[in-house]
Recover the amino acids of this structure.
């Protein structure tokens, strides 16, 4: 955490909403993108991201500076998004560890082929994954968090994080393989 | 081949662009925080009254459900008898009359006690103090549950 952020957080803890607006601006795209990739709905993602920031402000005095602020904020965003998914009735994809064969991935996934993956293609593949896998992959590779830090974010043991990462990669590789095979067909 | 696929996946996710938050996002967050901080006292009062009504309703429903559960067999048997419904309605009417009588007596007793009670402003101040304590405790709980974190 840099000095400016620490200073802003100190002012937020004293109830300065102006300082918090600086924090929101620094993290809004990351939190909104995370929520959007989990909820797949721009309005729901905006609502969840706003709710996460409001909750963060209200609980800022509980933030322990021994841990990165980003992972603390992502933890709140994770909780809000999981609540939103449950409310939307997507419980099964949140709670079930097991995942069936990817017979019908998101539209467009199988149409795109080639060795390199563009962002649209990986977005589509992530959207086809249950949120428990897509979120750990996003936190690991997009947010550059380690398994222990991801564990703190999602409130699960490190072993669970590693298992989900492995399973998520496996499913993506299978999707990638299917797409390549489909593309190779005459 | 498999390792290359994983590498490609990691690189592709890493390269994903952040989606831009909608315009005015941070202003809306700050406005929501400000709106929550300035909850009007009428709203708090209504909330407390709502909680009180909900509590009493819950108690009444639970009591009625318990009675129904306890006596359903006898009630069903009485209803099945010829003239059973009229008999039960009469019984319920008698109970209601008794309850009304007791209520009237309780009100008259309370009216006799009234001169000995503290003045209205002391009661109002005590009620306000209790409400403030409840609100303070509930907002503390809200802050804890907002995080839902065990560090």
């Amino acid at each position: 955490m840099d000095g400016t952020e620490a200073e802003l957080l100190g002012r937020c803890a004293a109830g300065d909403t102006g300082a918090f607006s600086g924090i929101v601006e620094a993290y809004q795209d990351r939190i909104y993108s995370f929520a959007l990739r989990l909820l797949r709905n721009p309005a729901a993602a905006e609502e969840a991201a706003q709710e996460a920031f409001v909750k963060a402000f209200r609980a800022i005095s509980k933030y322990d500076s021994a841990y990165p602020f980003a992972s603390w904020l992502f933890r709140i965003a994770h909780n809000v998004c999981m609540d939103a998914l449950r409310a939307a009735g997507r419980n099964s994809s949140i709670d079930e560890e097991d995942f069936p064969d990817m017979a019908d991935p998101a539209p467009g996934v199988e149409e795109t082929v080639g060795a390199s993956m563009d962002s649209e293609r990986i977005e589509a593949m992530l959207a086809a994954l249950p949120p428990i896998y897509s979120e750990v992959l996003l936190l690991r590779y997009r947010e550059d968090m380690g398994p222990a830090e991801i564990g703190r974010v999602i409130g699960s043991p490190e072993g669970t994080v590693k298992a989900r990462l492995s399973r998520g990669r496996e499913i993506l590789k299978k999707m990638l393989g299917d797409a390549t095979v489909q593309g190779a067909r005459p | 081949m498999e390792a290359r696929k994983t590498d490609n996946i990691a690189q592709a996710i890493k390269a994903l662009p952040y989606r831009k938050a909608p315009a005015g996002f941070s202003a809306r967050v700050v406005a929501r925080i400000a709106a929550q901080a300035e909850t009007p006292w009428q709203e708090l009062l209504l909330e407390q009254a709502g909680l009180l009504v909900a509590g009493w309703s819950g108690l009444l429903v639970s009591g009625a459900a318990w009675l129904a559960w306890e006596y359903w067999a006898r009630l069903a048997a009485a209803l099945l008898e010829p003239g059973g419904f009229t008999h039960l309605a009469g019984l319920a009417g008698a109970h209601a009359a008794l309850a009304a009588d007791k209520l009237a007596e309780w009100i008259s007793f309370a009216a006799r006690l009234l001169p000995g009670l503290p003045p209205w402003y002391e009661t109002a101040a005590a009620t306000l103090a209790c409400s403030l304590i409840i609100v303070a405790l509930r907002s503390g709980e809200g802050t804890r549950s907002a995080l839902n974190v065990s560090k």
